[in-house]
Amino acid sequence: MKKIVALLLVLAVNVVSVRADEGMWLVHLIGEKTYADMVKKGLKLSKEQLYSMNKSSIKDAIVIFGGGCTAELVSKEGLLFTNHHCGYDAIASSSSVEHNYLKDGFWAKSKKEEIPCPGLSVQFLVKIDDVTESVMARLKDIKPEEYTAKLPGILMEMSKKASEGTTYDVRISSFFKGNQFLQFTYELYKDIRLVGTPPESIGKFGGDTDNWEWPRHTGDFSIFRVYMSADGKASEYKADNIPYAPKHFLPVSIKGLNDGDYAMIYGYPGGTNRYETSYGVKLKVDIENPNLVNLRDARLKAMLAEMVKDPAVKIQLASSYAGIANYWKFFDGESKQLIKHNVIKQKEDQEKAFENWAKGKPEYDNLFANIKKTYDTWRPYAKGRVYLLEGILGSPLMSFASSLKNLDDALSNPNSKPEDITKMIAAVQTQQTKFIKGENVASDKNILATVLSMYYHDIDPAQQPTAFYNALKATGDLNKEETYQNYSKSVFDNTMFLANAKFERFITKPDTAMLHNDPAYKTAMAFVNNFNLNYSKYFKEFTANNFALNNKYQKGILEMKKGQEFYPDANFTMRVSYGNVKSYSPRDAVKYKEICTLKGIMEKYKPGDYEFDLPAKLVDLINDKDYGQYIDKKANDVVVCFITTNDITGGNSGSPVMNGKGELIGLAFDGNYEALSHKIAFDGELNRTICLDVRYLLFVVEKLGGAKNIIDELVLVKQ
Predict the structure, then answer these.
(1) Hey, where are the domains in the chain?
(2) What percent of the chain has pLDDT over 70?
(3) pLDDT tens by residue, 504-516
(4) Is 220 marked active-site?
């Protein structure tokens, strides 16, 4: 066991750039070769300035924003920059028809005007500890195929114990497919306030059409502030809290940039699977992605049809729609790029090389034969699972209804403790309040009708909930959409989950009979129980065996390439990537510059268009060329966005893009369509990160928003 730990430390410390600019490196394990490569590309900072446990360093300026984004501190008074789409939910929650901050934007001209954001939090990384030996000691008597069932509980127990007696959040994360474990300690701040946001026509300019595309002209930013108690501690919202005093914040450079300049990105990339097998890629390309895309497309159409009718509905559904749409296009593009770049063949070649190395090593005998068998056993049922999760439970009503299953089970169990049931009921009440706030009946009614029809026509009849469709057949022809529309209407008209009085009666005196007779619960459970009773066992076996086999494959890779550089898959832990600002040529005779400007915004501008409209004042500023100190002298324009070769993924949204001196030059917010295979395979030629230029951000804040107070709070680095 100690040999494994030592091997992992050697691999983690002795890292260099894998190829091109691939790699999301753990910030505390930057080795000498990697650091030398960073310096060669243009880094001007010491390793201690990048990460230090005891002194101020860049890591102290980087936070987890909300549940899945990154943000950075940019002032001595706790000011945060992040993406507009990261702040979208908080902005929408703060909006109303009368004060529509999504549509009109918002700028606090003083701290008193800043808007509290209940439920929003940020997390600061305090320290990182290697706990591989401790975890391995707990796993030594557990078979690898039991890891998926037992490992989460072990890590949670160890994390809880590590946080006892502290005010910190502790989480232990798995690396290299369960071959290494690191413990991350965070400090959580819950008083976060909205300081500024551009109108949606800037923050989402280009909409779904431009999503994942270059050139991109989206002003994807929002501004918040972290507050603390008067005695300097993390605190819930209190009116007399004071701005957070950071250990480190980023100066903001408006000097401009050139093709080839060094670019460094810190953040919390959410997830990659770079060590996936060819069998996993096949499952994704053949089954998972195309079905997910089709189901999300149906949901989006139903939502958009209602959003365009009513500004209030647009506000209500905006955040949910944006989240669904973002990865609808991603998964569509991912499949196309995986096929285009022949990633399955790449993986097969890697697996053949591994098998050649593994000859004579009994531990790895029949590894890929067993992996193939594992996938072959699961493939017949994979589509049904996608249709359950993205189809049936893609209906908000069905999703909420299914969440009551645990309460149902507890009520049906004579051994359930009354206090446990009381806690469950309170949780259900909270969930229902949130559900009602976000529920748009008109769109959800159409979603349910559509996905019920799609499930019937697309899933193997042998795998369908037979009793449900037989009962539905008695009401009408299952090949006619009218049948599903009528059924959906009946569900929505009669469910207690939308009728507060009826729901209150149920909550006051929970009754399983009342729950079982509810049409929404009955519908959701018909599909959930069908999967749980008949097919979940196959999924559990697949997950357990796949993890065990990949754990062994990853261990073998570490042995095979001992002494070579490695970075672990992204898992929403702090990473740093480095590369350069760089133009590229996506196909024959096409060359993309490294920057795009306000000129391009005007070329795309369509007055009144859902995706390409602009505020009248911004149009006037552009026509008047009123650029102030934010003009790029080479372009004779304001640079809106630029591209770099950095390796990032979801979770890096809002991440700071810094120059060699650690000065903020932009905010990462997207990738390019030609490299959407990046979660599984990094493309060293075509991969680009799309970044908002900080000069456009400041231009909008000052010239459009008139919030000079925000500009004055920053440390600007000028030419």
Answers:
(1) 1-121+190-273+569-719
(2) 97
(3) 999 999 989 999 9
(4) yes
